[in-house]
Amino acid sequence: MEQFRDAGPDPLTVRPMRPEDESDVARVLGDCDDYLVAATGSPALPADVQSLYYALPDGADFEQKHLLVVCDRATVVGVVDAVAGHPDSGTCAVGMFLLTPGTRRKGVGTRAAQRLLQEAAARGMRRVTATCPQGWAPGLAFLRSLGFELHAPPPQPQPTVGDRLRHPAETNLCTAFREVPGGSSGGTAAESDRERHNAS
Predict the structure, then answer these.
(1) Among the residues of the chain, which ranges form H helices?
(2) Looking at the whole model, is its pTM more than 0.70?
(3) For the chain, how many structural domains are there in total?
(4) What's the chain's average pLDDT?
(5) What is the pLDDT of residue 166?
(6) With contact defined as beta carbons under 8 Å apart, do 76 and 21 qualify?
(7) What is the CATH number for 45?
């Protein structure tokens, strides 16, 4: 995925993560302990940045993996982890979309997400999936504001969460779906329903 800049009132850039970004990404993860504890029961760990490179669901290839950073001017303020073409060729699974607490509720996340949805459509994606802890109200509200359809946690947790294997403590995650206008229209309605079921 190439770098792009948002045309909003403040400079905002979303670009692929580089090796030199690792210390900044570690800072973002540490600043987002509130979310990580809600999602996994644990704060950020030193190895979490490296694990981002290798966290993949079964059946996905590393070429499908996209690690992105959100930059406000020159400062990294967010991290996005997504896998394109999972669990089917028309779906993009987002496993992480984090912004530092000082960046939240300022429209930065909305601007970045809307641009990423446009990018997904340009790449032929028909839908985007995400997950969020059932008790994480800010995340659920954010997904609703973007037009995602939310589903309650499944009775039996699945081995895969979004674009990676499930952490043992991740047992109470809502699943979110959003159709992508302008994405590839291939496939029948029955196939679309079946792919959505498999994604959950």
Answers:
(1) 22-31, 33-40, 48-54, 108-122, 137-145, 189-199
(2) yes
(3) 1
(4) 83
(5) 54
(6) yes
(7) 3.40.630.30
